[in-house]
UniProtKB/TrEMBL annotation:
Molecular-function GO terms, alphabetical: glutamate dehydrogenase (NAD+) activity; nucleotide binding
Domain of life: Bacteria
Domain (Glutamate/phenylalanine/leucine/valine/L-tryptophan dehydrogenase C-terminal) ranges: 185-466
Organism placement in taxonomy: Bacteria, Pseudomonadati, Bacteroidota, Chitinophagia, Chitinophagales
Database matches in Pfam families: ELFV_dehydrog (PF00208), ELFV_dehydrog_N (PF02812)
Key word Ligase present: no
Family label: Belongs to the Glu/Leu/Phe/Val dehydrogenases family.
Annotated protein name in UniProt: Glutamate dehydrogenase
InterPro entries the UniProt entry points to: Aminoacid_DH-like_N_sf, Glu/Leu/Phe/Val/Trp_DH, Glu/Leu/Phe/Val/Trp_DH_C, Glu/Leu/Phe/Val/Trp_DH_dimer, Glu_DH, NAD(P)-bd_dom_sf, NAD_bind_Glu_DH
Site (Important for catalysis): D146
């Protein structure tokens, strides 16, 4: 499927939803387009040779500032992909009420082929190119980690930025996903996976939706298959397992395994670390090929790797009742059509994996306020709770001990507040999308309903900015 355009697929989904809105065609056209595309080539000395590195930064929308979006290091990075991911970021932020516009960046390299020192040179040079063109800054455009990047790369970016913009008081807010010691926020690492869990848990708690799918309400006992065991896939599987679901299948690029009685995610990860592969895990059966996991018997399938893994060819063989898109764009529009006809519920990427950007927003706010979450109220809450509990114990003559007491007295740490904010965000967004879908039965699927929510919010922003006289 070499002619597949990811940006084209995003536009297709947008057009499908636009007909359920009442915006002027001109406004719809403006929302759809990528506002600013920066494609660059720069030389970096790698070993004895000079390599010309190809990189991108796309700002899809400016209806709010700053723009926000990850930086991907992969050989597959191209303009089409970066534009598509930037557009999805715009819609994602709108749906979860994070006041950013969408952007995305990428460098076309295989990070495994470079030493940390070489990767640092590439990352710092990329950052300085962005600074030169004013494509980065706490009020302009705030990158974050994505596929192939992490806290280390974000630390290099913030260091380059603050050294080239000395004295900028909010400089730490130029990028998110940083190490906690460099202004990062606790809870960022597991944020996307936890957001996927919160979003799906909310869907699983809706009686009407579950009755239609012929499934009991709740997470417990659900059979889950996860494709991709990176940061997002691992944390999604972990939270589902902790809440009583059974992880029956796991898939990675080197192979896939299953066990209908459930796989222990921690043990699988340990096995993979030691053996370099998922395969031959004791207590798991190997699939003939890794894509077979997508077609196995289960309640929830969670593609958490790359885009375009379920398409017109394999969608008819998928047996899951619910597909939770933890990755960006794992389904093609053809797959969407097939699932809608088959009554399979697709919970769309553009809001389901918004946990990362939600917690990035909390990190950005922390950088602008220069104070750690919980610092002001933790002790006050604990003192107050101790006082209340003491009074209740005196009145009843009963004592509360152990874990229960700890739980009641506990004042919120940063990670508690971050997770609570994320939970609230995902629950609200899920309900909002489901409401729109319920009110307009013509809307064919949840993705289209999510796009309708996004288009309405972005359209309102543009209209209120007075951009359109």
């Amino acid at each position: 499927m070499s002619d597949y355009s990811f940006f084209g697929a995003v536009e297709k989904s947008f057009d499908k939803a636009a007909q359920f809105t009442t915006w002027d065609p001109g406004i719809l056209e403006q929302i759809k387009q990528c506002n600013a595309v920066y494609r660059m080539h720069f030389p970096v000395k790698i070993g004895d040779k000079i390599e010309v590195i190809k990189a991108y930064r796309v700002q899809h929308s400016h209806h709010k500032l700053p723009c926000k979006g990850g930086i991907r290091f992969a050989l597959s990075v191209n303009l089409d992909e970066v534009m598509a991911l930037a557009a999805l970021m715009t819609y994602k932020c709108a749906i979860v009420n994070v006041p950013f516009a969408g952007a995305k960046g990428g460098i076309t390299i295989d990070p495994k082929k470079y030493t940390p020192y070489e990767l640092e040179k590439i990352t710092r040079r990329y950052t300085s190119e962005l600074i030169k063109k004013n494509f980065i800054g706490p009020g302009i455009d705030v990158p974050a980690p994505d596929y192939g990047t992490g806290e280390r790369e974000m630390a290099w970016i913030v260091d380059t930025y603050t050294s080239m913009r000395p004295g900028e008081i909010d400089g730490l807010g130029c990028v998110t996903g940083k190490p906690v010691t460099q202004g990062g926020v606790r809870g960022r690492r597991e944020a996307t996976g936890l957001g996927v869990f919160f979003g799906l848990r909310e869907v699983l708690s809706m009686h009407e939706v579950m009755d239609k799918l012929g499934l009991p309400v709740g997470v417990e006992g659900k059979r889950v298959v996860v494709q991709g065991l990176g940061n997002v896939g691992y944390h999604t599987a972990k939270f589902f397992q902790e809440h009583g679901a059974k992880i029956v299948g796991l898939s990675e690029y080197e192979g896939a395994i299953y066990n209908m009685d459930g796989l222990d995610i921690e043990k699988v990860i340990e096995h993979r670390k030691n053996k370099g592969s998922l395969l031959n895990f004791p207590g798991g059966t190997n699939f003939a090929k890794n894509t077979d996991a997508l077609e196995m018997e289960c309640d929830i399938l969670i593609p958490a790797a790359l885009e375009n893994v379920i398409n017109g060819q394999n969608a008819p063989n998928v047996k899951a009742k619910i597909i939770g898109e933890a990755a960006n764009g794992p389904l093609t529009p053809e797959a969407d059509e097939i699932f809608a006809k088959r009554g399979i519920l697709v919970v769309p990427d553009m809001y389901l994996n918004a946990g990362g950007v939600t917690v990035s927003y909390f990190e950005w706010l922390k950088n602008l306020s220069h104070v750690r979450y919980g610092r002001m109220e933790k002790r006050f809450t604990e003192n107050l709770n101790t006082h209340i509990l003491g009074s209740i114990e005196d009145l009843t003559g009963k004592r509360v001990d152990g874990k229960e007491k700890e739980l009641i007295l506990h004042g919120p740490e940063e990670v508690d507040l971050v997770r609570s904010g994320l939970e609230e965000t995902m629950i609200t967004a899920t309900r909002e999308i489901m409401d729109v879908w319920k009110k307009n039965p013509q809307i064919p699927d949840m993705r289209t309903a999510a796009y309708v929510v996004a288009i309405n919010k972005v359209g309102t922003s543009y209209a209120e900015l007075g951009i359109f006289p």
